[in-house]
């Protein structure tokens, strides 16, 4: 394992309710996402968490449970649409066209929702926000709030830490899914 602090990666994550609990065969409750987060929240890296007042308070409480509150920064966004409203408006227009729906294998899939797609877009907006607004961040990577689905990839999380540089051919767009 690399011990150089310069190789440590700041993790950026966020959670916004996109209505996933309402999609048949794809439903996941918000509580399920918090259970996923609880698994990896003990990560030793610094973590920047985006979300509503309620989400960030709950996420910080989970980090605190593992003694990681001093390595946690919170960015409260109660209405994610406010981050880039013109992009969301455009996505809504596209979502409502028959041409968009006609070329979908699963027309009722959550990934066809403008809100869902917009929240996926916000991952990159949040990475840029951290880069523009926090000094001494250095390397950073997006880690989905629901990453690892509670132990699918990593069984033991107590010593979880991410080091090193990100290679684009190994990890898609600096995002861990």
Describe this structure in words.
By secondary structure, this protein is α/β, with parallel strands linked by helices. It has one domain (5-176). It is built from five helices and five strands, in the order E-H-E-H-E-H-H-H-E-E. It has a five-stranded parallel beta sheet, with helices on both faces. Strand 2, helix 2 and strand 3 form a beta-alpha-beta unit. Helix 3 (85-95) packs antiparallel against helix 5 (114-133). The longest helix has 20 residues, at 114-133. The two termini are 22 Å apart.
What does the overall shape look like? globular
Radius of gyration: 17 Å
Side by side, the strands of the main sheet go 3-2-1-4-5
Count of individual helical segments? 5
User: How many domains would you count in the coordinates?
Assistant: 1
| Count of individual beta strands | 5
- Overall SS class: alpha/beta
Distance between the termini: 22 Å
Largest sheet: 5 strands, parallel
Helices and strands, in order, run as EHEHEHHHEE
Low-confidence regions: 165-177
């Amino acid at each position: 394992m690399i011990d150089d602090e310069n190789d440590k990666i700041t993790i950026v994550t966020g959670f916004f309710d996109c209505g996933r609990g309402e999609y048949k065969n794809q439903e996941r409750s918000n509580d399920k996402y918090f259970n996923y987060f609880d698994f990896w929240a003990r990560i030793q890296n610094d973590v920047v968490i985006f979300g509503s007042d309620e989400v960030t308070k709950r996420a910080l409480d989970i980090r605190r449970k593992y003694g990681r509150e001093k390595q946690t920064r919170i960015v409260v966004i109660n209405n994610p649409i406010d981050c880039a409203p013109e992009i969301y408006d455009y996505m809504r227009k596209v979502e409502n066209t028959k041409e968009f729906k006609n070329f979908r294998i699963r027309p009722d899939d959550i990934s066809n929702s403008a809100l869902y797609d917009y929240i996926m877009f916000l991952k990159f907006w949040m990475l840029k926000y951290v880069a523009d607004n926090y000094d001494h961040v250095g390397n950073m990577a997006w880690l989905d709030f629901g990453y690892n689905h509670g132990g699918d990839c990593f069984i033991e999380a107590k010593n979880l830490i991410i080091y090193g540089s990100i290679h684009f051919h190994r990890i898609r767009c600096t995002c861990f899914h």
